[in-house]
Amino acid sequence: MTPNILLKQSIVRFILSWFGNIVLFILRWKVKGRLPDAKKFVMIAAPHSSNWDFIIFMMVVFKFKIPIHWMGKHTMFVWPFKGLLKRLGGIPVDRSVKTDTVQLMVDVFAKTTKFILTIAPSGTRSKTKKWRSGFYHIAHQSKVPIVCGYIDYKNKITGFGPTFFPTGDKESDMISIKHFYKPFSGKDAIKF
Q: 167-184 burial, b if ≥16 CB within 10 A, otherwise e?
């Protein structure tokens, strides 16, 4: 990359970081915890109960200049938002087409030296107690850790919890991961 492009990118990152700080301050949200030093990991975003989750999450991403990627319904990626969502790390997923999304993401992890994939395990904003386990399989097969990212509307706190290394015993690991999320409330008072 040329020095001009690098300068423009650093200016954009600075502006977005400043913007994220200001918005979180105005909305009175606190951010706790810190990301691990790992270059690759899967980050859980839970509980997911509102479109506001995405906005708060993106302000945290801006604030800390986190180079994340996230998967979203392909129907979100339409003009005029398609380009912006992709620049913000969005990866469109068409759930109506049978594809092995887990394997696609495992391949991406294998080909990159730095990759952070964020997934909302509930897979929906609707009230549900059942989590999809794709995030777990991606992390386990890619041999990368899982970072517990959380949002708690009751206390207006968001942040990063523990880093969890999948053992291969999915049932036991999922119980441990979900236990971390029990105290947090989604916007619509969903508890896990």
A: eeeeeebeeebbebbeeb
The closest of 38, 33, 34, 35 to 139, measured between CA atoms, is: 38
pLDDT band at 190 (very low <50, low <70, confident <90, very high): very low
| pLDDT surpassing 50 at residue 191 | no
Measured CA distances, 63 to 16, 116, 131 (Å): 7, 16, 28
* Cβ atoms within 10 Å of 26's Cβ, excluding its own: 9
pLDDT value of position 11: 82
For residue 109, the number of C-alpha atoms closer than 13 Å in the C-beta half-sphere is 24
Q: What is the DSSP string of 94-115?
A: -TTS---HHHHHHHHHHH-SSE
Chain-centre distance for alpha carbon 59: 12
Q: How far is CA 104 from CA 130, 131, 153, 159, 178, in A?
A: 23, 20, 33, 27, 25
> What mean pLDDT is predicted for residues 11-18?
87
Q: Which long-range contacts (CB under 8 A, 24 or more apart) does 54-58 make?
A: 56/24, 56/27, 56/29, 56/151, 56/158, 57/118, 57/149, 57/151, 57/158, 58/20, 58/88
**DSSP state for residue 51 in the 8-state scheme:** T
What pLDDT sits at residue 142?
A: 97
